[in-house]
What we know:
Blueprint: H1 3-26, H2 31-39, H3 58-71, H4 73-91, H5 97-107, E1 114-117, E2 135-138, E3 142-152, E4 160-167, E5 173-180, E6 186-190, E7 203-213, E8 217-222, H6 238-262, H7 276-304, H8 312-337, H9 339-342, H10 347-355, H11 365-378
Parallel strand pairs: 1-4, 2-4
Antiparallel strand pairs: 2-3, 3-7, 4-5, 5-8, 6-7
Helix pairs in contact: 1-2, 1-3, 3-4, 3-6, 3-7, 4-6, 6-7, 6-8, 6-10, 7-8, 8-10, 8-11
Amino acid sequence: MTAETAETAETTVDRIAELAAGYDRTAEFPAESLELVHEAGWLTATIGRQYDGRGAGVEDTARILHTIGRGDPSVALIAAMTLATHARQAARPHWPEALYARVLKESAERPVLVNHARVEPELGSPARGGLPATLARRTPDGWSISGTKRFVTGAEGLDWFLVWATTDEPEPRVGTFLVPGDSPGIEVTGRWDQLGLRASGSHDVTFRAVEVPYEHVIGIGPHGPAAEQDNRAGAALHLPLAALYLGVARSAQSFFHTFAHTRVPANLGHPVARTERFRRTAGEIEVLLTAAEQLVFDGAARVDAAETSYTPEQALGARVLADRHAVRAVELALRLLGNPGLARGNPLERHFRDIQCVPVHAPQEDITLLTIGTKALNQ
């Protein structure tokens, strides 16, 4: 990255950070921030070179999400879903050719957002296995999709929903159905009203007999282990997600530093940054974040280099440790600041709420540790 490019990136992320407090307060869809992400070229960075794209790898993706995460993790999470979709297509083309060409053409002109709709009220996370209740019925012209999905990040602004569903055939199959976001029959039926990532728009979405053409389906096949979420196969994709939250922690650290340098208690006569207590905590936060970033970015670089010695378990483990370090770093900053850090409208209070969303992403820590432990015991 050139100095000019880095300066432009910082200007962009600073503006996203300025908008973040308002979006957090209203929980509105962060359209202006996503437009900035699009203009910076971040939203299309993982489009494959075979499609004349940049072909950003796992490390570049991690650094992009780390940068956006410093500004607004809700925006970063929405962008992450689209980036992951393009990355999968670059690695293994599976979309209908004409349809993906349409997505690319529109993506050159405006933000085009794509995300999977997999989690269900009864099923929960696909990371734990199970058959989706969402049904795809055969029609004379294609498929009719009906069912409810939960936690669909960016729902209100999605151009494409990638809906995981079961067919109504005599021998049911499962597949991902490509549903245009403006299709009749799509309704937000449960509003996202959570502690953190309030602008991510991770709403519940109900599909009521939504029609899609027959060929708008990918990965369809019999249900079984191959049809369920493979946590090991997708391990490397979780490194950029960890980087996103490390970006949140770095913003919390930045506010902590600013407070330490500007807070001058009357009985002290100098900034609290000069006290041993603040310097010790600043050191611990820096150690936590530096170590976590090294794990994530170095691991991502090894994935890009196709190092066979770098295993899925190592990638999963890096995410576990990075997530723990990010949460701990923000907690340390908040604990030392006390009441000022918990004040509404304070960036640190928002960063603390956002970082609490770390554990919810699949695969959750217990599943991850089970995967790692099983491999370790079998060696």
